[in-house]
Amino acid sequence: MGGENFEDSLDYWRLCEELTVVQAALLVVGCNPSVDAGYCESWSYQDRPEGYEAAKAAISTALRNGMIVGELVPIYETDINGNQCGAIEYSIDVAVSHVNVQSLCTWLSSRGFKRGFFFPNLVSLDPDYLDPSHPRYAPKLAAAVRAWLAVTDSGKKSPKQALEKWLRINASIFGLVDDEGNPINQAIEDCSKVANWKQTGGAPKTQK
User: Fold this and answer.
1) Beta carbons of 183 and 171 less than 8 angstroms apart
2) What is the 3 state secondary structure string of 71-131?
3) Model pTM score
4) For 144-186, how does the pLDDT look when each residue is reduced to its tens digit (9 = 90+)?
5) CA nearest 15: which of 34, 1, 29?
6) 105: Cβ contacts below 8 Å, ≥ 6 apart
7) Inter-residue contact 60 to 96 (CB < 8 Å)
């Protein structure tokens, strides 16, 4: 097939701005979605690629909680006639639901995962101010920047509300929690104010 090796064939996936949850999980564990995406969900669990189930579950949860930008498509129950009866609670159709690649990369990095397909360069992709090992690392600054990078679309919420939600979910990553592990309200407020790109406030207006 054109003399391409495995790594070269994966490079074409770098052109994608969006991926299904299955495709994203396969790429995280170093598998080619062109080969495995249409089949791995039908395989028994022990035959699926190593790490795939964990990656798929983590990406699905992050998408459902708004930590990754994308579109969540639930799995629907059907009656005996095959008609949809409603979405199954907490379900995600991983073959159809998709994630924004940039948002996925930001989330992976925030979880300390900076290797493999989505991080092709061995040198850190992060500037010094996002590197926790840097002597002048400032957690609130890093949290505000990460939130701004992650929340590309606030949806029906105002940008500040969407930023606050992301920051609360990820507060522990940046040490913005109290002794009981609860997000520190003032810290969340400070970071969301810095990252907020719409200072006038209010939810996005819908077009008529």
Assistant:
1) yes
2) ECCCCEEECCCCCEEEECCCCCCCCCCEEEHHHHHHHHHHCCCCCCCCCCCCCCCCCHHHC
3) 0.60
4) 998 998 888 777 889 999 999 999 988 888 889 998 889 999 9
5) 34
6) 118, 119
7) no
Task: List the end-to-end C-alpha distance of the chain, in Å, as a whole number.
Answer: 50
Q: What contacts 171, CB < 8 A, 6 or more positions away?
A: 143, 177, 183, 184, 187, 188
The distance of Cα 103 from the centroid of its chain, to the nearest Å, equals 5
Structure tokens at 73: 């498509």
Helical packing angle, 21-28 and 101-110, nearest 10° = 50
- Assign 3-state DSSP to the chain and report helix, strand, coil percentages, each to 5: 45, 10, 50
Name which of 104, 119, 93, 146 is nearest 19 in CA terms: 104
Angle between helices 159-169 and 139-150 (to 10 degrees): 120
What are the tens digits of pLDDT across the range 116-154?
898 876 445 568 888 887 889 999 999 999 899 888 877
Contact between 130 and 140 under an 8 Å Cβ cutoff? The reply is: no
* HSE-up (13 A, CA, CB side) for residue 56: 23
